[in-house]
Every structure is written in structure tokens, then in C-alpha cells.
Amino acid sequence: MNALVESNKGRSKNSALVQAEAEAGQYLTFMLGNEMFAIGILSIKEIIEYGQLTEVPMMPAFVRGVINLRGSVVPVIDLQLRFGRKYTEVGKRTCIVIVEVTDAASGEHHELGVVVDSVSEVIAIPASDIEKAPAFGANLRQDFICGMGKINERFVVMLNVDNALSVNEISELVNLSE
Asked: The domain that contains 141 carries what CATH number?
């Protein structure tokens, strides 16, 4: 898994469609609570152990803090809180997934860390096994979901990281909390 993640460093994406085609159906799956989620592998930079977080005052609750990643300051987001759920309790398998998001307005790329309960695996999900995001019932904003993947008779929520972790939206929420 790390070889796949490491091989994606330095790559950029132009649009959601190009990204989906380029990923050839490869997704990192992880758990949040009792639900499985997936992010396209090209958005994943690396996976690190949870720890060494520096809290930043006056941030929204879902911003857990920042980490020093090889000299760069990387904000860390609690996905559970971002999705309006309960705070993620840190356990033995809790880790931080470093993802690259693209700012829709400027096209700039940003690295963010997301706290997940556990990472499962990198899997291939063929396009034929991906359903359109539901209009209701997923307990997430519809724009956060790019589809529902079928894996062994179960569904996995496929995240649109550029929307779920929108740098502009997060900045606006930070400004509102000041």
C-alpha cells in the first residue's frame, strides 16, 4: 500500500473527471466510526501515525491542529466533526491520512491531514460498481460524496475531497469563529 501512496507524491489533478479516469478505479478505504469511506488514490500523499499535533487557538472544532510534515505546516481535520458527527476518539489504529486538495477558485493545491479511525486497504473499484451519490439518506452533504462503491455486497462512501475539505469553505468557517 505504501508503495502506491508514495508513487503519487508530486502528482496533480486538473478536474474530477480527469482524476477519476487517471486513478483507474484505485481507492484508499478507511473507517470512520462503523462506516467505510474511500478516497481516490491520487489524492493521497501518505499515511502517518497519529501524534505530534499542535493545537491552534480560535479554530473550528473540526480543525484538530497542525503537524510539521518535513518542514511544512499541515492542518489536520477531524473528518467525523467535519461531517457533523462526534469527535474522533484516538485509538491504536487511528492515523492521519495526508491528502492533496485543489482550490476550485485558484487551482492551487493544498495538503491537509485527515484523522481516520483506521485505514483498511487500497482496492480497485470498477466504474460498473460505482453508483451515483444518493440525494438523501447518507448523513453527509451531497456535494461531499462523488459516489457509492459496491464492495462485497456492501457500500462504501466515496468522498469528493475537494468539496469535503474545501480550503475556501474551511477558511470562511475559521473567519466566522473569530
From this structure: 2.40.50.180
Q: How many CB atoms lie within 10 A of CB 15?
A: 11
Q: What are the angstrom distances between the C-alpha of 45 and each of 4, 7, 101, 133? A: 10, 9, 10, 25
What is the rounded distance in angstroms from the CA atom of residue 126 to the CA atom of residue 130? 7
Compute φ and ψ for 70, nearest 5 degrees. 50, 45
User: Model pTM?
Assistant: 0.79
Please classify residue 94 by burial: count the beta carbons closer than 10 Å to its beta carbon, then call 0-12 exposed, 13-18 middle and 19+ buried.
Answer: middle
- Domain containing residue 160: 2-177
Q: How many domains does the chain divide into? A: 1
pLDDT, one tens digit per residue, over 93-122 is 999 999 998 887 778 888 999 999 999 999
